[in-house]
Amino acid sequence: MTTAAIAGNMPTFADALWPSTGLRRDAVAVGLASLFIAACARVVIPLPFTPVPVTGSTLGVLYAGALLGSRRGAAAVLLYLLEGALGLPVLAGGTAGFLHFFGPTGGYLLGFPIGAFVVGRLAERGWDRSPATAFAMTLLGSLPILMLGCLGLARFMPASAVLPAGLYPFIPGDLVKAALTAGLLPFGWTLLGSRASK
Length: 198
Fold this sequence. Notes:
Layout (H helix, E strand, L loop, with lengths): L2 H4 L6 H5 L5 H18 L3 E2 L8 E2 L1 H12 L1 H16 L20 H19 L6 H23 L5 H8 L4 H27 L1
Antiparallel strand pairs: 1-2
Helix pairs in contact: 3-4, 3-5, 4-5, 4-6, 5-6, 6-7, 7-9
């Protein structure tokens, strides 16, 4: 019986792919997910009109939740943030340091665990198994990241500039991430189902 099943939830993709249970399995999954987020964070596209760049971090964060579920996904993100705070070069573009949490991007970083938890909770409810709900799941997970990001950014610029600098530029990317999730996760479940039926 999987961890998700014990908790009364549907199995996550990670549970179905790696059905053994135990703390060691969960610790390995959380550690690997934190490394995946760090790899995604290497992708950085600076924008000239805002101190917040477009990064791959959020894709890694949301996928950590989608694949591992709410608690393990949030734990993977917290581990990733701890690594960055302690000086490992895992934050956006390979940067590091706890001062990032107090800068213009600090609110987004604080929103990461919440976003992963939201996506993971919905995945535990089966939202990752159909394109429409997987799309909605990803957008709902992006909301707390964007909301906290804008609140943090408001400390560094006038209120009228926050949405143009901290929200609007990231909507297209979030739609692309949601579309990727809507295609990849249900397809992954289909592959797992067909493999199990053989």
